[in-house]
């Protein structure tokens, strides 16, 4: 990859690690961001997202691993990258009395070829607030100003960290529209977030970070598909059946991961053509189903499942283990996801 290669990745991070004292914040993280993508870095609080993007931005030096941004080394080539990478970091604050237009003019003066502040006011929906002091802006307006400041150098890559944290749903949606407009203007975006809805709505691809490591990479749909094994089917026979009859019918059905009977209701977790396979298997045993209900995994379920660590077990949802109160089929009980998924 060279600085002049317009087709190469915008970010290439390989085997990055970083510790703070005894805290291993980032462990062997590799990711590649393509030109024009909105690339999400998604994970729980403390997962290592900010440390990862700070290494990519050249604000922290990795203990191990390499980073290239636009073909440059963020630490060694910091001056050159300053012109090409825009940063909006958590908790950015400005002097209370600084006015919106003054802030943009000030930041524009740092660059050789800045964007027109008036264009940024329009893009970010801040024209009516151009003369307002920072302290008089709403939370959403402050966030949009911080994005405008990240864009004033006309960056090729914008890194936006927890952009919508603390915003109400309306302001959040307005900010999402702004992010899409920025991408449409040709800027590649790395978006750090712990909000699944935000990642699902905006991101072309997501790196799911858990415990400092990459738990999965893919499109939102691909990441949801990783937990397709976590579909949950509930079926009530039209006449009561012995537990052994219901569980025995499912023994050997390939898409079934786990099955249990509780109060006459059969609960089955699995993937693939789960509904069809289960209903056919029951039918073969002469069991008719009066009532059937299927829950599909969402990105939120995938997030909970894939970011579950030993110190923070899954909280629930379709991805959580099925009830243990009922009886499980011996052929399938205990089948749990153990591998690190890659899409
Ligand atoms: N400057 C620091 N000194 C010591 N420990 C730190 C420092 N910065 C982060 N950490 C620790 O490193 C780990 C990863 O933190 P990091 O901020 O990268 O996570 P994050 O995913 O961005 O979290 P959040 O969403 O809460 O901002 C956490 O355990 C955090 O407490």
From TrEMBL:
UniProt-annotated location(s): Cell membrane
Taxonomy of the source species: Bacteria, Bacillati, Actinomycetota, Actinomycetes, Micrococcales
Gene Ontology terms: cellular component: plasma membrane
Name listed for the protein in its UniProt record: ABC-2 type transport system ATP-binding protein
GO biological process, alphabetically ordered: response to antibiotic
Top-level division of the source organism's lineage: Bacteria
ABC transporter domain boundaries: 11-236
Topology within the bilayer: Peripheral membrane protein
InterPro entries for this protein: AAA+_ATPase (IPR003593), ABC_transporter-like_ATP-bd (IPR003439), ABC_transporter-like_CS (IPR017871), ABC_transporter_ATP-binding (IPR050763), P-loop_NTPase (IPR027417)
Protein keywords: Antibiotic resistance, ATP-binding, Cell membrane, Membrane, Nucleotide-binding, Translocase, Transport
Start and end residues of each stretch annotated as Disordered: 310-343
Any GO MF annotation of the entry: ATP hydrolysis activity
